[in-house]
Amino acid sequence: MTETTYHRDGLSVDQQLALRTAAARLREEFDGVYGTETIERFLHSSYDQFATFSTVPNFLPLLAERFARQRLTALARVEGLRTDGRPVVLFLCVHNAGRSQMALGFFTHLAGDAAIAWSGGSEPGIEINTAAVAAMAERGIDISGEYPKPWTDEVVRAADVVITMGCGDACPIFPSKRYEDWVLDDPAELTVEQVRPIRDEIERRIRQLLDELSVPAQH
Question: Which parts of the sequence belong to the Phosphotyrosine protein phosphatase I domain (predicted)?
Answer without folding.
Answer: 87-212
